[in-house]
Queue: 4 jobs
Job 1
Amino acid sequence: MRVAVYSGSFDPLHIGHLQILRSLQADDRFGAVYLIVSPRSPFKGAAKARNARKRYEAAVEAVKRHTELTKVTVDDIELTMPEPQYTYKTLDALKAREQGNDFTLVVGADNLAVFSGWREYGRILLEYGLMVFPRGEVDREALKSELLEENPAYRIELADMPLVDVSSTEIRESANAAEGLLM
């Protein structure tokens, strides 16, 4: 079975994330979707996100409220892994846990723009592949082309979904702006 792995801090989980989950839910290529709450991003240094367990529990509750998300499971695998939680380690752990499944990493275009800075990014692109969703003004086609020039065997798919320009950072910075955006 092909499984979409959507990992992030989800601090907070918002309607932009929900739209991606709905798109993955509707995609017949995926038999399951794993929403993985990361304790913190290795790229954000020592800055601590809100308590990871609370964010995980909030994600579980949000998915429960959206009963149409029947393929979505909130997975706590990264909460039990030693820090830092590099994505390739998470994907490898999922592959070891569920040997019959084929995992695809889901990212926003903003992450594709910096993907070559991720640990083991080439291996991720070869072994797991990416499903890239629109984010901001990032030119996904150009970024995909650059990576494919490096290695034509990289697996990169561009998701067909309208852009929802919502940022967890902006929501956290402005509580007033968060009204109506939170799931």
Note: The first strand starts at residue 2 and ends at 8.
Job 2
Amino acid sequence: MRDTTPMSSRPFRLHIGAAYYPEHWPEERWPEDVRLMRQAGMTVSRLAEFAWSTLEPEAGKFNFDWLDRAIELLASNGIQTILGTPTAAPPAWLVQQYPRVLAIDENNRQVQFGNRCHYCVNSPEFHDAVCRLVRVMAEHFGPNPNVTGWQIDNEFNRVCYCDRCRAGFQRYLADQYKSLEALNDHWSTRYWSQTYTGWDQIPIPVGGHNPGLMLEFKRFVTHSYQAFQKLQIDLLRQSIPPTAWITHNFMGWFDGYDPYQISRDLDIASWDWYVGSGHNDYLASGAAHDLTRSFKRKNFILMETQPGNVNWSRVNNVLNKGEARVMAWHAVAHGADALLYWQWRSAYGGQEQYHGSLLDQSGQPRPFYEEVQQIGREFGEVTDLLAGSVPKSRIAMLYDPDSRWSIAWQRHNQDFDYVDHFNHYYRSLATHNLGIDLLSAQSITTVSILSGYKIVVAPALIITRPELLEPLQEFVKRGGTLILTVRTGMKDSHNALLPDRQPGPLTGLAGVEVEEFYALDEPAPVKGNWFDGVSRLWAERLKLLGHPSTQVVALYGKSNGWLDDQPAITVNAFGKGLVYYTGAYLDPSAQQAFIDRVIKNADLKPLPVPPGVELAARVRPDGQEIYFAINHTREPKQLSLPWPAIDHLSKQPASAVLKLPGYGAAVLTKPPSEN
């Protein structure tokens, strides 16, 4: 079940804030900054995540006085501090003293100083310097009651290819496989005469390589960052109180490591959300919010989001007036308990001069500041209502980084992207506003993890572990609906092909096997009782196994000859539930029609809403449901409510037909008589 533990034992607050860099500005300016923060309703600020050279200007000599004063000034104005460990920005003196702190890129070139995250995550000299700094910071700032939480590093992302990382990778493999015989067997190294007779022969993969080697290197990168993070967590926990939490800010669908694994040692997950060019696609951002929330199966922090525009996209347009407000409520609806803008004020120099901010370089509020003031007021008004509440989800999707990597290296159709396919299902499900958790496929060890869900979807689960079979069988047997999609059950956990046909260990549950898969150079028609459409990019020819419980939902039309009139989608009755196998990668219209019917067959009855409108729910510990009605378009919309409601933003009763202006939002509860 979902973890409803709050991020700390402090009284709940729906926080709004910004990343603040007092070290950039004269100290006499700080009171004006804090006054403007308070005027915007801000209750939290993130400090110091890049301030290593200011906190430790030379090895072992620390300067914390300025940060003490900044934290105290913020606290005296009701603003708590999130303190970053500044390890993403190793200073010049450290790099000069220990050049091997710098990472080596895939072309065997040393990364240049002057950016960020330029370190080798496995460098012992770097670890020593990090431990020295974090230990002293923890001892000094840990007892400060105004430090509410800690962020470890910033946006882990660098991969190092140095000799020490290679040696570490070889030790990691020896620990995982125990013997070279086992490794050679699992990786089929007789192919192209790749057999290893010594651990020190194994390279770090650059470009294409053995699929087993490539997968294990991704796992090693995950292991390396988890160990580096754990160094800091252990030092912090020695000095900080139990009321202070620890997080790291992830980057949505970034694929450099397994974020579920790295999140295991954290108290709470956070992420950095940027739209870039154009405007927010709420179905796409909803998936990323749900992903981050699901790392810990508890509410999350939006550690960074854009105040108007970014500086790194193709066209760095500003968000429309009112758009950021509905984006804020959208994040809260999906489980954000804090939202921080990056950044407070534009720096005079550095690589991000053109990035949006709440104040411009002159120190004056930008027009966007007014919208933040409104968000701050509204957050304060509903804080008590939202205390302890978590999103309500009836659907689980199984996300698997291993499967994502496996497909990325051997797409077979270069347009086939795992995340695109995953979101193809998410989008068609999310239009029903039933709430979706994005669980790690590797976490499904017992059926209890799936309790409370009516539908489970496993998109493109190409690496399918046998341990997954029993929980999924039991889930379906008890009345659940399971959707398996293309490319399921092709490989084992070593990225080797399974000896059986797809879907491998799930074949009996699905009631079908895949006779052949086809990368499509043109769409293949698909016809069924529920929809007509086409399969794009990929198609699988299914063979029923003769069970009377298995039925064909859709057939292919005339195509490449091999697919003509063959089963494309099937459904198998298993116990009290249903298992769908979709061998077709349906076009969006057909996909929506298919999912609409699956939802109906699962006896779920979502409230209908017009396109562009979201209706999400959070549930309080006492069972009260809080609904967020959000219009993500510039046009007025209206939706019918089946019960009377109170809008806590307008402080007015909501009529049976709720009218939302362009970029409008309402936070609704039923009156006590309706609960």
Note: The mean pLDDT is 96.
Job 3
Amino acid sequence: MMLEAATLLFFPALMVFAAISDLLTMTISNRISIALAILFIAMAFACGLPATEILWHLACGAAMLIIAFGLFARGWIGGGDAKLAAATAIWLGFDHLGDYALSASALGGLLTVSIIVLRKWPLPGVLLARQWATRLHEPGSGIPYGIALASAGLLLYPETAIWLGAAAAIH
């Protein structure tokens, strides 16, 4: 029961941490992506996922890493975003990779448009003392895309084999 609960909680907790980190600092620590990859392998083996299935999930992460680093090389996303997308893809697998890319793109577009619109209005006084808010409000500063990547991962995680297996074991 503890293993299943951990499986259900680790991924969402790290996704929320990554999103908050990106919002506040515009960085996503490598430790988050590494932890996601290691925890997937540990949880997948512990939950009895077949080795071939685990390898396919790792291949999915590698494919996403190649794609995401192409986006990073063009300056469209940050390096932390690329690594987070790859680590998330490990958990989601090829079955959900297209949905992840589509969801992250849609949520990222919504986030970007929202921030651009909010930048046109004066920053509320209560936020003037918050460095993250003033940085986010500056025209031309980056968009914390990790929020969209993490949100998309959280939306799709309940559809994954590892989540469904852990949830079924708890019930």
Note: Residues 94-119 form the longest helix (26 residues).
Job 4
Amino acid sequence: MGQWVKLICGASYQDMPTVRRLVMLYALAGVDCIDVAADRAVVAAARQGLEDAQWLSNYLGNRSYLIPDFPWLMVSLNDSEDPHFRKADFDAARCPAECDRPCEPICPTAAIQFQSPQVGGVTTDLCYGCGRCIAVCPVGNIEARPYLASPEAFSTGHLAQIDAVEIHTQTGHQAQFDQLWQRLQPWRAHLKLVSISCPDHDQVVPYLWDLYNTMAPLGVPLIWQTDGRPMSGDLGKGTTHATIRLAKKILEVGPPGYVQPAGGTNGYTVDKLIALGLVNKASSAALLDDVQPDQLPAPQPAGVTHHDSALARARTNISGIAYGSYGRSQVLPLLDAIDQELQPWLGKDFPDQLAQGQNTSLPYLKSPPSAARPPWQRLEDTALGQGLTLARQIVAQLKPEGQTPNGQTLDDPNP
């Protein structure tokens, strides 16, 4: 694994139409994994997006980088209070009538809307807990309401729709992590990968070793997601330094597993990683194909520290990258237009079925107008074409432009 790319839709983001289109675009751009909220309806919308991508890939030719067998679908859980798992909340009646309402324009998903002074609020499904509104409220009227995502919300049947799980934790939360890990017992037979997301701390390395020993023997690949600046949403150069520092720390002395930066990743991150010699140019297809469960390291015996692990010392490269706010923000302004362009062919969701967490399969219900020219035949002047280009530019930072997902060049005569 050196070119593993993950899109983070948001652990608290539950706007199903937007999730569906984000998943579709980034699947076509070649991501390996898509991380969504642990909500059955959101998972169903994401699955719908993957099926949309598969259908469109038949018409896009070499503009499609959809990987074989689909990107893996991951859901995020938290073992305790965490900034990724919260929603903004306020009583609009307590807002000053003369307030300029800076919370409204600063919200990146338009979750806050006022119908008139002191009348309005937060559309919960659109809020992913970034906290920008809290910071700018002049009277401190907005608060964050945390919550715990529940693995029990998914029945055995629903687990078939999930490929991977990510657990958000923090140093010192060993007991809470252990409890959640036990609750995930019914999930484990269905999982192809486990990811642990944790921010930096002066005791983060021994904490991750404790988690590793709790989970081992795991039986599937393990990713340590280095959450440099959780929920930062900042696109500046300096934002990416924290996640790279943490990634280097885990590479040097952390437990066995793949290391993937997140939390502050943006358009500068890959260039910085390459400059530091932390990127392996091997194909992302090598991530899981070369890993066998019986090759995974055993738990460390009592008294053995991370310094004694040859496997930990041997790692020199990050194994991939995850994009959250940066990846979403590049294409969000185009999603409504893309939906309109695809409407005659892809139709609408079935809201009742999605709300029940059911996969609706492709609802191609409408016959397109006979004179209509589909957007994939005129990508140069469509929102779909622009969105695909933007998404592909992000993914191509680790998966080069001339490379298909299986690592072969487009002009390779021997696929």
Note: Residues 200 and 246 are 6 Å apart (CA to CA).
